[in-house]
From TrEMBL:
Biological source species: Periophthalmus magnuspinnatus
Stretches assigned to coiled coil: none
InterPro entries the record matches: Kinesin-like_fam, Kinesin_motor_dom, Kinesin_motor_dom_sf, P-loop_NTPase
Phylogenetic lineage: Eukaryota, Metazoa, Chordata, Craniata, Vertebrata
GO cellular component terms attached to this protein's record: microtubule
GO molecular function ontology, one term from the record: microtubule motor activity
Protein name as catalogued: Kinesin motor domain-containing protein
Family to which this protein belongs: Belongs to the TRAFAC class myosin-kinesin ATPase superfamily. Kinesin family.
Highest taxon of the lineage: Eukaryota
Residue ranges of every copy of the Kinesin motor domain listed in the record: 1-148
Record GO biological process: microtubule depolymerization; microtubule-based movement
């Protein structure tokens, strides 16, 4: 899925989105790449709507392992979408998913929940819940491991 960003005059003067507009007026820049999306959200779309169409279906599969991943250009709104804004009373996808997950788990007292928060930044993996590991790990040192 993809969401259209707010390109208001205030945002244009403080945002890296200027590059998008520059490319639009640069006829010498050509691209044969095609991009396909399951859904396109408008700029007035709420986090609740994004959650219902994207992450909500993952909640039932979380017990078997699922990932909700935000990717995009700096300033595109990843943090707002995933964390929300307490000042605006807008919950992000993390809070909405946790609410649904704990509601689902309340019917099964034998299950436990373990959570990890990692950030990949400039080729480094950061454990966001352990400040001692904040300086990161090189991505090439992380291995997949089967826990079954």
């Amino acid at each position: 899925s993809v969401q259209v960003a707010d390109l208001s005059p205030e945002k244009l003067h403080s945002s890296p989105f200027k590059l998008i507009l520059l490319c639009y007026f640069a006829p010498w820049i050509r691209s044969d790449h095609k991009f396909y999306f399951d859904y396109v959200f408008g700029e007035d779309c709420s986090n609740e709507e994004v959650y219902q169409r994207t992450a909500s279906p993952l909640v039932q599969h979380m017990l078997r392992g699922a990932t909700c991943f935000a990717y995009g250009q700096t300033g595109a709104g990843k943090t707002h979408t995933m964390l929300g804004s307490s000042s605006a009373g807008c919950r992000g996808l993390y809070a909405l998913a946790a609410q649904d997950l704990f509601s689902y788990l309340s019917s099964s007292p034998t299950l436990s929940v373990f959570v990890s928060f990692f950030e990949i930044y400039c080729g480094q993996l950061y454990d966001l819940l352990d400040h001692r590991k904040r300086w990161g790990y090189a991505i090439n040192h992380i291995y997949n491991q089967d826990f079954n």
